[in-house]
Design goal:
The chain is mostly helical. 67% of the residues lie in helices and 3% in strands. A three-stranded antiparallel beta sheet has the order 1-2-3.
Length: 409
Amino acid sequence: MTVTRLSPRVPVQPASRGATRTAVRTSVRAPGLDWWLLGAVAALVVVGTLLVWSATSARDTLTGGDSTAYLSKQVTNVAIGVVLMVLVMATDHRWLRIVAPLVYLGSVVGLGLVLSPLGSTINGSRSWIDLGGMSIQPSEFAKLAVVIGMALVVAERAEGRWRARVGLGEVVGMLAIAAVPAALIMLQPDLGTMLVLSATVFGVLAVSGAPRRWLVLLVGGGVTAAVAAVAGGALKQYQVDRFLAFTNPDLDPRGAGYNVEQARIAVGNGGLFGQGLFDGSQTRSGFVPEQHTDFIFTVAGEELGLLGAGAVIGLLVVVLWRALVIAARTDDVFGRVAAAGIACWFGFQAFQNIGMCLGIMPVTGVPLPFVSYGGSSMFASMLAVGLLQNIHLRATAPAATRFAGLPGR
């Protein structure tokens, strides 16, 4: 027979008020920012600003201009972008859901104004609006507006489930949201933005749980529409020539294939360690057109070498990784789909930009996120980062504060 000895009861002393407050502070942790995401974006912005300065300083010096003019403008763009990011980050994204229709409407109105007398044509595309000496490209903001609009449709369908199964009505609704900006973008025409928008829409549909047959039909319809656009003359001749030059860069090395040829030479000149910042031979000579915007990656390849260019790609991968992690960790359908859509947007646009600099993608004229010169691209990208941080903050916030003071789900 086993005898179990009971230890004497020890009286429990009531906890002091100070100890109780300490325990509460320990158990309820304040939500934190995603520092990996912020660090990667900050590094990309700093590197990009230096590359823009390098790409423009020699050209402006040769023409008798201010060698720091583009540097000052890019610093201003970054500063405004940071302010926009903080504003979005500080606003609960459920309020963003309320104003999402206004954001979408504003982007559509902006795309419409581009086609009006207020619009201006640059490099063959009527994609800008001149406002007080500053050029705004509404199609950059349309990418974010479409992501938010499509995410709102999915959220209204099924809130609180990991994978919201959408049916025909939701698929049609999401495609309708994307169709209006897409049609206005094609009228500009801006083929690069159209490709990025198409990839983003496909990614949002896949993440939201759209049936596979609809995804297959969407791809088939997109290919058919592209062939019809080329055959029907919807694309301008220079855009068709760029596609032909992509298939055979030696077809017209001094015409449509010139950009790709010079870009590949610049990247190849860099070797492993690069020729040094501000010392790239192709960059200093100005052989690569639009090097501070569409072909900014060639500056990294030539002046920073394989290691520096690889570091830029690595930082972009970190941004995509954190966006996908944020999408996976939130229990909010709107936030999950929006974060995944932003990842698709950044991922394909970065691939397209770097790919055309390396000759593995056709030249379509899209900026490298956070790196290329340009206010509209920087503003839209920073707004997207602010939304990612907003979703992350809400996902890591205590449940008691997460749903307080705002409209319910």
